[in-house]
Amino acid sequence: MNTLIVTAHPESGSLTHAVAEAIADPLRAAGGRVEIADLAAEGFDPRFGPADLAVHRQQAAPPADVLAEQARVDRAGRLVLVFPVYWWSMPALLKGWIDRVFSNGWAFDFRPGAPLAKKLGRLRVQLVGLGGADAATYARHRYDDAMRVQLEHGIFDYCGVRAAHSTLLLDSEGVPGAETLARAAELGRALAEGGADGASRS
Q1: pTM of the entire structure?
Q2: Are 70 and 106 in contact (CB under 8 A)?
């Protein structure tokens, strides 16, 4: 299965980028094609502007940069989003990528008075968030549940994705980086072996 890994972190040497590579390595070793999209390095514009609103209203075709990102997703059977957790969600750069790329007419079809058509049923999605707080903090405040409802259900289920799962690599500021990378590599191996996405959900 071809995999597109999308990262959103301003530093190329960050743990986020290292996690993305740790996930990618077992997928490549298993013979899969892996593309990594570094949104910060590539300068993707996350701002949802008038042109994007026209796309949503089905008054215009998507801009060239959005079409290029949609083509990337179309080439992949699996999408992996790797991101630091900011304010119990994803960074604005990655959220803006979703806002613009998962557009009306491509990810779903919405027209007033007509049934919603969900168009991404073929896609598998793995969300990998790196959180600074520990698992007890997430559990106590139910941040993990809130993120899953927001991201898995609120975004990907709306588009028809039947297999969207989350893995949180927590306490990233307290746990040694090698341990976090080992967990990321384990996730990559599970994906390469075709196991259930999101096997590690904490």
Answers
A1: 0.95
A2: yes
